[in-house]
Amino acid sequence: AAGRSARPPTFPTLMIQTQMYFSTLGFFVTCFCVALAASKTVVSSLVMTGEMKMQPLDLLCKMCPLAFVEILTLSLLSGELSSIWSRWDEITQSWAIPVVVMSGFSSFSLNITNFYANKMTSPLTLSVCANAKQVMMIV
């Protein structure tokens, strides 16, 4: 397509586009997200191994519509959607759409894999691994 560069941006280029800095709000948001991730692991384990015995794909199909509504609401309130619509021509001429599609596929794959791992191991194991990952990302 016209306007696209010859090559997509590489992974290291995407990683170093912005400077990282510490903020108190960011710290508390990170702690809150860690707590939510741990509770999601425990609840999903209970749903998949308890009385309901849901399969990982069924659980994901139940969770996705609510997550979509939450994301759409937050993007409307924060002004992200209006920003996207105002720059739509620029976005369609760049690598943004293929990157978003690849990100969505990666997220779906990660969630399915996470649910299967949660079903086979314990929520504690996954929570410890997730918190270790968060610490390594910060460091």
Write structural notes for this entry.
- This protein has 139 residues and is mostly helical.
- Helices cover 77% and strands 0% of the residues.
- The chain is built from 7 helices and no strands.
- Helix 2 runs antiparallel to helix 7 (123-138).
- It is globular and about 50 Å long.
- The mean pLDDT is 84.
Annotation field: number of helices:
7
Q: How far apart lie the N and C ends?
A: 40 Å
Structural class: mainly alpha
Strand content: under 5%
Describe the sheet with the most strands: none
Shape: globular
Secondary-structure element series: HHHHHHH
Low-confidence stretches: none
| Residues in helix, % | over 70%
Number of strands: 0
What is the radius of gyration? Answer: 18 Å
**Averaged pLDDT:** 84
